[in-house]
Amino acid sequence: MRAMAAATSATEVCIASSGTPTLRGILDVAAHARGLVLFAHGSGSSRFSPRNTFVARQLHEAGLGTLLFDLLTTDEERIDTQTRELRFDIGLLTERLICATHWAQTESRLRHLALGYFGASTGAAAALCAAARIPSVAAVVSRGGRPDLAGSELARVRAATLLIVGGHDPEVLMLNRQALAQLSCTARLQVVPGATHLFEEPGTLELVASLAADWFVEHLGG
Predict the structure, then answer these.
(1) Can you tell me the distance from the alpha carbon of 222 to that of 34, in angstroms, rounded to the nearest whole number?
(2) Chain segment 60-118, per-residue pLDDT in tens
(3) Which residues contact 141 (CB under 8 A, 6 or more apart)?
(4) Radius of gyration of the chain (CA)
């Protein structure tokens, strides 16, 4: 059963690492958080994604901290708006997520927390690739994700993985079923009846948030 967390306080942070540009994020962690979930947003989105923000609020109520951050810089976002190429550059997105993970692991207020990833769309592929390379990541949740874009990294994932797909999103559902077969970790595919790709139907995003919170609480411990 999930416990109600104490009130959190969101703060703007800058995530800097040698060799990569500074990324902007929103960190929200209660004093006694049981874990930290890093969000890898989907195509053409940002740290202000309303869907991810909604899920993050539910994670806070479950006693989890969150870090929503931009995978692309402002200049890169401007380029991507025109070309739509960077949002599918899984190698680049993975590198940025790994950078944010290392930043969290070195922050004194965060480094004791168990880590999880919440990925949406192409961000889910980056989450799985990063989890394959960082064994300390304990759990991954994908919302309407493209885990197939993680390719051969899928077989290396050890983090407990939940794939959430809308029942009315047939192509992505097929790709998730194929990806599930390649995962050798604890993994589950959860189909949300009546939901399309963006989970815009009444009650569907609420179910996504509830499923994600339960998964993280179970697998991040505490």
Answers:
(1) 5
(2) 999 999 999 988 777 776 766 666 666 678 999 999 999 999 999 999 889 899 999 99
(3) 116, 117, 118, 119, 161, 162, 164, 211, 212, 215, 216
(4) 16
Task: Return the residue matching tokens 């994908």.
Answer: 142
Cα 159 from Cα 131, distance rounded (Å): 7
Angstrom distance (rounded) from CA 51 to CA 16: 26
Q: What is the DSSP letter of 134?
A: -
* E strands in 75-207: 114-120, 137-143, 160-166, 187-192
Q: Which of 38, 48, 52, 158 is nearest to 100 (CA)?
A: 38
The three-point CA angle 108-222-161 to 5° equals: 95
Q: Helix (H, G, I), strand (E, B), or coil: what is residue 22?
A: strand
pLDDT, one tens digit per residue, over 2-44 is 444 444 578 999 888 767 788 899 999 988 898 999 999 866 6
Domains of the chain with bracketed CATH: 10-220 (3.40.50.1820)
Task: Kindly indicate the confidence band of residue 219, based on its pLDDT and cuts at 50, 70 and 90.
Answer: very high
- How far apart CA 141 and CA 157 sit, in angstroms, is 12
